Amino acid sequence: EAKLKLFGVQDDLKLSLNAIQVLRERYLLKDQEGNPVETPRQMMERVANAIAQIDASYGEDPEVSYQEFLKTLMALDFLPNSPTLMNAGCPGGQLAACFVLPVEDSLDAIFEALKNMALIHKSGGGTGFSFSRLRPRGDRVSSTGGRASGPVSFMRIFDTATDVVKQGGKRRGANMGILRFNHPDILEFIQAKKKGGEFENFNFSVAITDQEMEAVRKNEKIPLINPRDGRVWREVSATEIFNVICESAWSSGEPGCIFIDEINRKHPLKALGAIEATNPCGEVPLLPFESCNLGSINLAHMVTEGKIDYAKLGETVRVAVHFLDNVIDANYHPLPETERMAKANRKIGLGVMGFADLLVKIGVPYYSQQALKIAEEIMQYIMLQARKTSLELASRRGTFPNLEKSTWYTQNLPLRNATLTSIAPTGSISIIAGCSSGIEPYFALSFRRYVLENTELIEVNPLLEEYLKGLKLSQKDWERILAQGTLQGIEQIPQKVKDLFRTALEIPPEFQVKVQAAFQKYVDNAVSKTINLPQNASLEEVKKVFFLAHETHCKGITVFRQGSRSRQAIYPGLLS
Ligand code: CDP
Description:
- The chain is α/β, with parallel strands linked by helices.
- It has a domain at 98-278: Anaerobic Ribonucleotide-triphosphate Reductase Large Chain.
- It is 42% helix and 17% strand.
- The strands form seven sheets. Strands 1, 2, 3, 8, 9, 12, 15, 18, 21 and 22 form a ten-stranded mixed beta sheet that branches. A three-stranded antiparallel beta sheet has the order 20-19-23.
- The longest helix is centred in the middle third of the chain and has 29 residues, at 369-397.
- It starts with a helix and ends with a strand.
- Bound molecules: cytidine-5'-diphosphate.
- Cytidine-5'-diphosphate binds next to loops.
């Protein structure tokens, strides 16, 4: 009732206030005046129906799938990425979240990429680019006799165009900009976001090889190479560049690193070329013009009587993989090239959200060896079940067309999908599902979040109350918990409960890397995780985290030191 009054939306799925507000702003279909014309349940029906219909084209019965999809979505056991929720069943609906576009070293190619980016953003997708092929600033332009502007200048145009083209009219576009560690303009790139006010639609990542990491460790010199002619531009100290990356990451959270050799070692489609870029949040390395549609299982719902419910998890994986495979066919692509690639490789990215919630529900602290073990166990199970379903789908519908060019072929795995798993940040869909995001620990037990324009969302951990109920806390204690967003300093709360509700800033960064590595072990694509550091973390700490991520076979790394940006998307506690 209150929700109907507040937001004009009938809550027929028993969602949280924030979920209703986010759905109202961005997901529910609206009439010309901007009033919602569907309820949350009707949205799920629209999505389940549009995706189930694909079964008919394979001679299967869509009605059975419709019921399975609808049940799973309505229970919030699994949600697809935002574009699928927003656009499925709508004419021309684009359903994938992630794209990578090539940028070649010519004006023609650069502006072609820019146009393609605009079309993808308009359709609701995010884009990743490697700018490593562009000649450096000051290099020769033979046709005009002039001097080149360099990758960072061109990126500025992509950033501005992103500002102008809103993603499907619903959110601003997201981009990943990548430059190779040995590009002559690397220092300019690393520091481009430092002064702020620019590139707010970009995440920056440096692509670094194993050999370069080794040169950093040994304090060796490396040549910077002009990609236009392959000649050495100048020699620099690898350690110095690495230090500038870490200093910049310490002071502004950017750039991150992607470990490009690890990505290519695990790349199943090597015959089609090497991977140079990832999508905006890093969880999907892709070839030029590839895209990926994502979906996440809500692990908070995979617990029965204090234990992980593997039967339910397995069944949810089966439904989710079937669903995501259908999305590839239901998708309307903004570019013919992306359609061709999506249908040739049929990549999907099934992941998880609510991992922190699951741990609380089974009574295991996030910061514990056991949590690492559980992370591996769950993800291995999901990977195996996903493969099983993909093999079954292939036996009915055929393998992905490029199977014979993939490493799966040599392993004798006739899969339907070139990749199956990926761990997304689930920034919006975890709000809809009312669970913790991705595989992150709780950022805080109460916090303010700014994901909608001009709207502050206040959240208090929904599991906390249950644990604190019996403790007879004073009004003052409660106020303190809500104000600071942690249980620190509240004497009455037993250590066991404090351990269960430890927040990101109370968990050592190295341990957070280990959680990322544990999931990565069983993920085909990559894992999105922010390594949260307290405000007083040192530069050395940041370096350690980068090295550890590389050593433990992560595919990339992003750190965020509390307070290092003038504006954050999320703040702990309810005090400003
Ligand atoms: O929760 P939701 O499905 O909205 O997205 P997410 O898991 O936070 O992000 C998954 C991917 O969606 C990102 O890596 C981007 O590729 C894309 N994305 C985007 O294009 N624009 C945004 N504003 C947020 C995410």
